[in-house]
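Incident log entry.

Two folding requests arrived from the same account within the same minute. Monitoring flagged them as a possible duplicate submission, but the sequences differ. Recording both here for audit purposes.

Request one:
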Amino acid sequence: MLHTVKHSPFSHHSLAQALRHLQPGDQLVLWQDAVIAATLPAWLPRLQPLADDGRLYVMQEDLSARGLAPIIGEPLTMAGLVELIVSQGSPTAW
């Protein structure tokens, strides 16, 4: 299953909730303000297992718009997101 998180980890608990609900093989996309988590050392321990398995994606456009570079995660374009949705089905949005 594909999960997407859009809220900053500073203002919402949606990323933490999504991580609690992920099942083996699920993929996670951070977009909008959630991309901030991929730049924060405090989130590395929780996101690293997903990144190691190639299941963590970070929207490149959202990183660029905020002037950020990810520490962790696979950069993803909008075209790549569409491909993931086509292959995985409708995502669970947090």
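Request two (distinct sequence, not a duplicate):
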Amino acid sequence: MTERLPDSDFLALVEPFTGPVKEMRPTERGFMSDVLVLIDGGLGRFFVKGVRNRAGGRRDSLVRERLINEAVRAVSPGLRWHTENDRWMALGFEQVGGRPSRFEPGSPDLPAVLDLLGRIGDIPLPDRAEGWHETRWDTFTADEAEAQLFRGDSLIHGDVAPGNFLVGDSDSWAVDWAWPTRGAGFIDPSCLVLQLIAAGHSPEGAEALIARNPAWSKADPRGIDAFAGASLRMFRHRAERFPEQSWLRDMEATAQAWVDHRSA
């Protein structure tokens, strides 16, 4: 996450698309970008996301986010332009009037969040995502047979979190499609279950909220069990690797509570 405003080279890169910048505000949303700003310019209002133009993960994620946008515009702000030079790569999205959703028990945002999750599940897998197989949890499965349970033909957002599910007065949006994949349809609902438990729901209550989601209700329970176990091992591994990040221990405890519930 960054609150740094972009340098003059970045502004020179994007101003042909934004027009003269009238106002620029940093945003706290996002962890993997070097620049995250709201720009009001002579050509419109944009949410601008930028990374250093170096080969590797951040650049690759921005490329993937650009490529998937057309397929997910039913649930996501539209990409209006993209540009790059030797130093920077940038995407310019339309600004939407949404705020981060709240997942805690009793939140008035929960119906919109669940509806948005269902709308994501209804998106057909686009051709360009055919080869983007979901493997992020594979390392933490018990064996290869469990990893195979995560395969499928659904489009996966993979980062279901309050800051990525925005709600407005009349609509909601899933943002930060930094690493969409092809996988089992229960993965995004399972990610939401973890987030709901982290927000204060009981594991039983979180699963009850998700129960009407078709991808969840039709899923092989073994796949969900495997995902819960892999999530626990993943957060435990990361918490041990980064002990200063207390939220990882919190998520480890969240995943443990879910595993205990499903094992009972």
